[in-house]
């Protein structure tokens, strides 16, 4: 596809993809014209922009319909407050790399786990896939881990994850951060410092505690999701709730199916939804915050509701929740459900409600 990912998967055929992609490309072109006009209104460049209009209701509307793909990384960085963070933390990333190079502070377990996950990060993406030709193969140095052909972005990913593990010892390295950092590098033209700063924002502001050693934050967020599901989609909840009645008083006694939803938040949907669907959620996340992730989860349950209600076996329900999202190509339909306030939408779920439930 336009990002170097495979179009087809176990869940999406080439015919499905092409049938979706043709009209969606036209949608992107229409949105690009709108964004161009908006940028010009603010006197901003439309050629590789690094600055964007301030957050407003109009910007929220525009982001919900998609940021132009080639501007995405720069827009995420801008709306997450990246330029200010870059000034505030000037030199921090490179100082961390120097410490690691001197053999200081990086735990052996973090180093090993990072090394293990590097080549598991988007192995089907052209930018990440090792080039087998001898002329283009880079070899990892022995102190970095396994030797072998390596693309430049894998080296960048190693450095970002190692620096983050030293900078945030309460997290260190958590499996799934490789996907988030990898995608940031892909859309930030491999700017390691920017990817490092955004990884910090995501793990502290949008998903606090989610990637900590105990994963307590992840469990809390799934409990918040399940509470919202019980309230807003009681028919779906009735099929998911497999805990004894005595557990009802404890909000952290989660149904078995919650295990299938934990990766949704841990990887910000990157291993759950088709790529464009996940990217559209990211477009909104950096402007509106973590309520976006909860609304998206509810929309996924709404879209899979007919299939969930059609089966009786709890294992079949688990399988549907685990696999059905990977076929949800219709991202415009998904986003419409996330933000519509009337009828079947989840636009009424506010950030305040989420923080209170957390």
Report on the structure:
With 358 residues, this protein is mainly α. The chain is 58% helix and 1% strand. It has helices spanning 14-41, 57-64, 72-79, 82-88, 92-101, 108-118, 152-167, 177-187, 192-206, 216-232, 234-240, 258-266, 275-288, 291-309, 314-323, 331-339, 351-357; strands at 138-139, 149-150. The protein has a two-stranded antiparallel sheet with strand order 1-2. Helix 3 packs parallel to helix 13 (275-288), helix 7 crosses helix 9 (192-206) and helix 8 (177-187) packs across helix 9. The protein is globular. The two termini are 37 Å apart. The model is unreliable at 136-147 (pLDDT under 50). Residues 121-149 are annotated as: Disordered. Residues 66-289 form the Rab-GAP TBC domain. This is RabGAP/TBC.
Summarize this structure briefly.
Residues 121-149 are annotated as: Disordered. The chain is built from 17 helices and 2 strands. The protein is mainly alpha-helical and 358 residues long.
- End-to-end CA span: 37 Å
Helix-residue proportion: 55-70%
Summed over residues and divided by their number, the pLDDT gives a mean of 90
SSE pattern, N- to C-terminal = HHHHHHEEHHHHHHHHHHH
Number of beta-strand segments: 2
| Secondary structure category | mainly alpha
Estimate what percentage of residues fall within beta strands: under 5%
